[in-house]
């Protein structure tokens, strides 16, 4: 039986419901938190409902099942524009959104990262800004998110056991003077919350068949549905948001599973479509009153697109590793996550183990590559260890999501164009990370080192950023649009800056905080 | 008379060739899996000659000296399926023809180094990129390749928790995490 079979349903003309667009980390969490307060919610999710039983232990087949493959275009100097011109992002189109695909790393931001402009100073070419909230504002919500998601090494949850890839990283970390453990992961190390413990399958990116990794698919969404206040509508692709003469949003127009246009009236709308679709939707909702798009009086909608500084280091050894066995992100080193401009860049980065199966290693090792250097790496696949570098990416005004009038989707709507140029700070940080990663692996006997360029981005951030002043951003510290009182941004688009850490825990924490705020606004009759 | 559609199908069927070979490594991991040492692949759209050429071209693009032709044949199989599309069929036919012409008639008659000399200048072109782009997926996304390169594939579906996820012994063992190690161990 599907979780939607016996759910409460709401009428299309019911203007008392909150409409949440997207069911991932932001949307799925917000919807459940609202439903728990007795607020009626309709969740519109573009993707289909796949359950854990549907997940595939096959990288390409799973990619075809889960990935967001609707056309996007790219421009700018980043290498992805050449290698994967229609796949700038590796995110999910399925109920649960990218929480189906994520690796589970759940790291709090560091206090100084909430005030990047103050702490880093002006950086040429960057559009740095302090968040309108600080670490202490978010700390209680981080604690609630960790409790809810079952994050390891919090709330008495023990750490995960380390796999072979972890053992290589850990041994190298000892030589480098780094600390390394199996991290804070939203993956059950023991049975918990009605879900199994991690069985070390190594298919975290393909959906956790055991349900050991937290995903809104089998936590927040069914919990919300169980309250009788949440209706989930999969395969509902939102086209635009409508408003009335007073400038308040009133309805969401979408295409249902049969391709028919529907209009769901709404008391309040929360957008959580990930940082490419969220600004695309606001831009596609332009009207005579809001000619530049909804909530875009500042011109900041779509700007400051951040995708984290990323890169990978793979190393080969005389002895076998079999890195694909077990948790994908099995070990974390945070020593380089500090802000220390003496390294030649502001902000910092995390080092996290990462393994790809043979098919994806071939696809991402050196896109476009061929010949003996390429095949020499794959010949050593089972003797290979690997890590991912993930660090702070500076916001730039010109890095932005725009509508591409030349290319339309199946509903005739302009698709998103993703423009991205690397900032010199990102380049310097990546080079530093490559060097440190290579040195770590060489310290334990690495033979060959492969510096692998960024994958299509799973961390997409910042395109509707929070700001204290309306002219600097799109929404306030609660994700509420500066221009439209009953429109909220509820995903990573809100991020003022990217920080070094994987974003999901912060997205969930912000959603819990936002739900509490919306509940208060409703009680006060303000929305 | 046949309808034009039927004629075309019959023609294509008739034009399809066969690609065949024998496993080179009689005691290799692939031979242990294979029911017999010889293998054959019937082609729907491509001729035998085109199939042989594409296999040899893929060997130049992704050279793995110890990898069986039977695995490279996966690429030919994939390209053959795509060649049901007339424009792709034409692209492959022209590319193979151009390579033969460049080699003075028979590219396959050349030795390894000479084959590469004629192929390398085509890199970046539509024909080369079509073969490379298909092969980087189809060569490595099949169970024979998994066995050859040492990847578990769907074997991991049940989890490696009791099947060697931490069986590496050539480095020092990390300290046991606080609260035990495995899900069934008790804390403290």
Outline the secondary-structure elements.
The complex is a heterodimer of chains A (527) and B (188).
Chain A lengths: L17 E4 L3 H12 L4 E4 L14 H8 L6 E3 L4 H4 L32 H5 L14 H15 L14 H13 L43 H7 L3 E4 L3 E7 L5 E7 L5 E5 L2 E4 L2 H11 L24 E8 L15 E2 L15 E5 L4 H7 L7 H8 L4 E8 L8 E9 L5 E6 L4 H19 L6 E4 L34 E3 L14 H20 L4
Parallel strand pairs in A: 1-2, 1-8, 2-4, 3-14, 8-16
Antiparallel strand pairs in A: 5-6, 6-7, 9-12, 9-15, 10-11, 11-12, 13-14
Helix pairs in contact in A: 1-7, 1-12, 5-12, 6-11
Chain B lengths: L3 H12 L2 E5 L6 H5 L4 E5 L5 H14 L7 H14 L3 H17 L9 H8 L6 H13 L4 H7 L39
Helix pairs in contact in B: 3-4, 4-7, 5-7
The number of distinct β-strands of chain B equals 2
Q: Kindly report the greatest chain-chain contact and the residue count on each side.
A: A-B, 55 and 44 residues
Radius of gyration of CA atoms of chain B, rounded to a whole number: 23 Å
Shape of chain B: elongated
Class from secondary-structure proportions of chain B: mainly alpha
Structural class of chain A: alpha/beta
Indicate the radius of gyration of chain A in whole angstroms.
22 Å
Enumerate how many helices of chain A there are, as a single number: 12
Q: Hey, roughly how much beta strand do the residues of chain A contain?
A: 15-25%
Let me know the average pLDDT of chain A.
97
Account of the protein in words:
The complex is a heterodimer of chains A (527) and B (188). The two termini of chain A are 36 Å apart. Chain A has 12 helices and 16 strands. In chain A, a hairpin with a 5-residue loop joins strand 5 and strand 6. A 5-stranded parallel beta sheet of chain A has the order 4-2-1-8-16. Chain A is globular and about 70 Å long. Chain A is α/β, with parallel strands linked by helices. In chain A, helix 1 runs parallel beside helix 7 and helix 6 (164-176) packs across helix 11. By secondary structure, chain B is mainly alpha-helical. Chain B has helices at residues 4-15, 29-33, 48-61, 69-82, 86-102, 112-119, 126-138, 143-149, and strands at residues 18-22, 38-42. Chain B has a two-stranded antiparallel sheet. The radius of gyration of chain B is 23 Å and the shape is elongated. The interface between A and B is large, with 55 and 44 residues.
């Amino acid at each position: 039986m599907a979780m939607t079979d016996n759910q409460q349903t709401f009428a299309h003309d019911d203007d008392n419901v909150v409409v949440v667009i997207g069911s991932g980390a932001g949307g799925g969490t917000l919807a459940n938190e609202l439903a728990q307060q007795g607020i009626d919610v309709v969740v519109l999710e573009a993707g289909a409902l796949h359950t854990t039983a549907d997940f595939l232990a096959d990288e390409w087949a799973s990619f075809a099942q889960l990935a967001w493959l609707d056309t996007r275009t790219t421009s700018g100097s980043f290498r992805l524009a050449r290698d994967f011109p229609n796949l700038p992002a590796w995110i999910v189109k399925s109920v649960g959104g990218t929480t189906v695909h994520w690796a589970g790393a759940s790291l709090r931001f560091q206090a100084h990262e909430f005030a990047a402009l103050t702490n880093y100073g002006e950086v040429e070419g960057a559009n740095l800004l302090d968040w309108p909230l600080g670490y202490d504002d978010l700390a209680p919500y981080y604690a609630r998110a960790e409790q809810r998601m079952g994050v390891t090494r919090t709330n008495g949850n023990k750490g995960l056991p380390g796999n072979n890839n972890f053992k290589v990283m850990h041994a190298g970390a000892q030589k480098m003077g780094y600390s390394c453990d199996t991290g804070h992961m939203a993956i059950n190390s023991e049975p918990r919350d009605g879900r199994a413990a991690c069985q070390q399958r190594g298919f975290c990116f393909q959906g956790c068949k055991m349900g050991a990794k937290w995903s809104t698919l089998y936590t927040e969404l069914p919990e919300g549905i169980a309250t009788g206040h949440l209706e989930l509508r999969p395969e509902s692709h939102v086209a635009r948001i409508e408003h009335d003469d007073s400038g308040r949003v009133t309805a969401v127009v979408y295409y249902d599973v049969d391709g028919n246009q529907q209009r769901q009236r709404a008391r309040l709308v929360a957008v959580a479509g990930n940082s490419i679709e969220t600004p695309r939707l606001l831009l596609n909702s332009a009207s005579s009153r809001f000619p530049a798009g909804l909530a875009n009086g500042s011109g900041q909608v779509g700007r400051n697109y951040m995708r984290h500084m990323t890169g990978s280091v793979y190393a080969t050894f005389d002895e076998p590793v079999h890195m694909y066995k077990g948790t994908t992100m099995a070990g974390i080193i945070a020593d380089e996550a500090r802000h220390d401009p003496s390294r030649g860049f502001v902000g910092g980065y995390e080092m996290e183990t990462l393994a790809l199966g043979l098919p994806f290693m071939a696809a991402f090792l050196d896109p476009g590559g061929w010949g003996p250097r390429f095949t020499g790496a794959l010949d050593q696949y089972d003797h290979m260890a690997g890590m991912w570098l993930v660090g702070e990416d500076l916001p730039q005004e010109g890095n932005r999501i725009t509508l591409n009038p030349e290319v339309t989707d199946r509903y005739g709507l302009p698709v998103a164009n993703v423009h991205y140029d690397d900032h010199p700070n990102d380049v310097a940080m990546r080079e530093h990370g490559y060097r440190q990663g290579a040195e770590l692996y060489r310290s334990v006997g690495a033979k060959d080192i492969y510096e692998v360029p960024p994958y299509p981005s799973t961390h997409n951030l910042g395109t509707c950023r929070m700001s204290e002043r309306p002219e600097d951003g799109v929404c306030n510290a609660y994700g509420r649009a500066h221009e439209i009182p009953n429109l909220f941004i509820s995903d990573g688009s809100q991020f003022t800056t990217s920080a070094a850490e994987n974003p999901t825990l912060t997205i969930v924490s912000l959603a819990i905080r936002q739900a509490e705020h919306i509940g208060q606004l409703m009680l006060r009759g303000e929305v | 008379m046949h309808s034009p559609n039927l004629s075309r199908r019959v023609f294509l069927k008739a034009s399809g060739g066969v690609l065949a070979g024998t496993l080179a490594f009689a005691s290799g991991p692939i031979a242990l899996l294979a029911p017999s040492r010889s293998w054959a692949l019937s082609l729907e759209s491509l001729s035998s000659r085109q199939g042989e050429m594409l296999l040899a071209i893929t060997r130049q693009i992704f050279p793995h000296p110890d990898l069986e032709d039977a695995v490279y044949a996966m690429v030919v199989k994939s390209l053959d399926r795509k060649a049901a599309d007339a424009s792709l069929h034409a692209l492959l036919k022209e590319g193979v023809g151009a390579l033969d012409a460049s080699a003075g008639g028979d590219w396959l008659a050349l030795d390894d180094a000479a084959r590469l000399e004629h192929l390398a200048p085509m890199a970046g072109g539509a024909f080369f990129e079509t073969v490379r782009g298909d092969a980087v997926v189809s060569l490595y996304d099949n169970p024979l390749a998994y066995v050859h390169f040492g990847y578990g594939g769907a074997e991991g579906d049940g989890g490696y928790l009791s099947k060697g996820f931490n069986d590496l012994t050539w480095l020092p063992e990390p300290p046991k995490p606080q609260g035990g190690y495995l899900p069934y161990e008790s804390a403290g």
